[in-house]
């Protein structure tokens, strides 16, 4: 996102019309845009700037972003850019059809990797309008592409090439600078596709691709981003109100990964899905991430795959989490949720180990939904050299409470449900587990467990004596439920560390 803003085009946006009484000048648009990118810690230089007849010509434009030149830098050699004042009060922007961006990184072992990215945006229509104290950008382009085929450094694949292409793009962005930088944007693309290829002595040749249709999204950010780029000041920037959010969705997607000639077996993995979404957020309240897929189908083929190929489908899949990011003396909320719904295997795979159909083919489901309160006792953004005591500190963070909002595991005709609440005494640790002592209760309920044991014995994968032992163990920690072949259990951990099952101490 930063590189596109630095280039001054790809983050462009839909304009509100300027009022009839005032027209934005090209020079004013250029000055205010420089002020905006400067608030991100970026620098734009030109060889010359010439204004004539309502057109500002910027020659030899170079955009540089290097928050730490010893670790990261990105330089975009854009070339000649013109800003032309239009009759409707807007400013149109003309840029080269393509330009190169050189990205350089240095890892912890002082190994430098250099990447040359070629950005192309032929026939792009870019305009700038004034929106109050902010600038609003408008971008429409039939195609924007990003190509990486020049990669240098240690442990990089040979003949590497990456290409990303977006089709029929429209985008809008409202950018403002001042005491706090602000930016909001929306974007749509009829399609997004990508390919990647490379050759590695150990992994062999790899060819991968993906495609999406109906792509759309929004971004929003406010705060001192230049300060946030400095690791020493990142926490202060968040505490002072910096926030950023990204949301995107798509209608359909496909992917393919083919590997050949490596030390491991050749493989061919492909798949498709229906609508999906992704979300990311960062602020003083925490970092959040969410991703959802629907109607997922995956096919795996290869020499090392049982039967040569397998197919798996999922009705839905998703993961969400929220975690505090700032050091605090007060507990803050955290969340984690994992969902896998309607997992099905194709019959050819079932028939390999259960040709008689002894096991139910019901779709499998998994739900883990957790929440709680916790805190960081130290600054997690601090430089490693400045936080050596974090590794030595026995308590860099604390969990004060944990809620098991929902637990669902269902497969092969059996289902396990659970929920519970726990608190943690951080003043004491369990000597065996080396963790704060929990106190609370977990409620569990299972249906179909005995029937599943019988089927596994019939299938020959579970000896009958082990099935009997499993039944005896379940009888020690659970009691019969209200329906046939059901068990319920209330597992309690007391304040003094005892573990009770349905009110009785566990016998082991």
UniProtKB/TrEMBL annotation:
InterPro entries recorded: DUF2125
One Pfam assignment: DUF2125
Statement: the UniProt record of this protein carries the keyword Signal: yes
Signal sequence region: 1-26
Source organism superkingdom: Bacteria
Keywords for the protein's UniProt record, in alphabetical order: Signal
Keyword Signal on entry: yes
UniProt-recorded name of the protein: DUF2125 domain-containing protein
Source species: Tropicimonas omnivorans
Higher taxonomy: Bacteria, Pseudomonadati, Pseudomonadota, Alphaproteobacteria, Rhodobacterales
């Amino acid at each position: 996102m930063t590189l596109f803003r630095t280039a001054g085009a790809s983050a462009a946006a839909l304009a509100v019309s300027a009022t009839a009484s005032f027209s934005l000048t090209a020079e004013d648009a250029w000055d205010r845009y420089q002020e905006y990118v400067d608030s991100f810690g970026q620098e734009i230089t030109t060889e010359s700037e010439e204004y004539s007849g309502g057109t500002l010509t910027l020659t030899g434009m170079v955009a540089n972003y290097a928050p730490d030149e010893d670790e990261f830098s990105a330089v975009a050699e854009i070339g000649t850019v013109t800003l032309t004042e239009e009759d409707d009060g807007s400013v149109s922007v003309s840029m080269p059809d393509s330009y190169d961006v050189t990205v350089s990184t240095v890892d912890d072992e002082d190994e430098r990797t250099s990447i040359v990215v070629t950005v192309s945006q032929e026939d792009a229509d870019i305009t700038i309008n004034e929106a109050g104290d902010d600038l609003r950008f408008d971008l429409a382009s039939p195609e924007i592409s990003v190509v990486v085929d020049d990669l240098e450094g240690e442990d990089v694949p040979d003949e590497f090439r990456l290409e990303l292409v977006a089709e029929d793009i429209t985008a809008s962005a409202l950018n403002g600078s001042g005491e706090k930088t602000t930016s909001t944007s929306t974007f749509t693309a009829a399609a997004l596709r990508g390919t990647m290829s490379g050759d590695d002595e150990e992994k062999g040749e790899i060819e991968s691709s993906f495609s999406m249709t109906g792509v759309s999204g929004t971004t929003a950010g406010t705060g001192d981003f230049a300060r946030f780029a400095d690791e020493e000041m990142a926490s202060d920037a968040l505490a002072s109100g910096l926030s950023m959010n990204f949301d995107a969705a798509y209608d359909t997607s496909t992917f393919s990964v083919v590997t050949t000639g490596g030390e491991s077996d050749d493989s061919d993995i492909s798949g498709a899905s229906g609508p999906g979404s992704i979300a990311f957020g960062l602020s003083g309240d925490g970092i959040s991430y969410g991703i959802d897929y629907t109607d997922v189908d995956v096919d795996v083929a290869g020499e090392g795959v049982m039967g040569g190929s397998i197919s798996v489908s999922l009705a839905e899949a998703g993961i969400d989490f929220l975690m505090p990011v700032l050091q605090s003396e007060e507990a803050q909320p955290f969340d984690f949720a994992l969902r896998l719904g309607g997992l099905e295997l194709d019959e050819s795979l079932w028939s390999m180990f259960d040709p008689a159909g002894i096991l139910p083919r019901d779709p499998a489901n998994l739900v883990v939904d957790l929440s709680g309160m916790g805190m960081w006792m130290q600054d997690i953004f601090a430089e490693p050299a400045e936080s050596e005591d974090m590794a030595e500190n026995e308590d860099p963070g604390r969990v004060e409470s944990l809620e098991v909002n929902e637990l669902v595991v269902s497969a092969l005709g059996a289902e396990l449900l659970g929920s519970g609440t726990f608190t943690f005494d951080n003043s004491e640790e369990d000597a065996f587990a080396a963790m704060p002592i929990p106190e609370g209760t977990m409620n569990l309920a299972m249906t179909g467990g005995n029937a599943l044991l019988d089927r596994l014995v019939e299938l020959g994968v579970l000896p009958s004596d082990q099935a009997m032992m499993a039944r005896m163990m379940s009888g020690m920690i659970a009691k019969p439920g209200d329906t046939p072949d059901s068990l319920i259990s209330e597992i309690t951990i007391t304040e003094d560390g005892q573990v009770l099952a349905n009110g009785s101490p566990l016998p082991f």
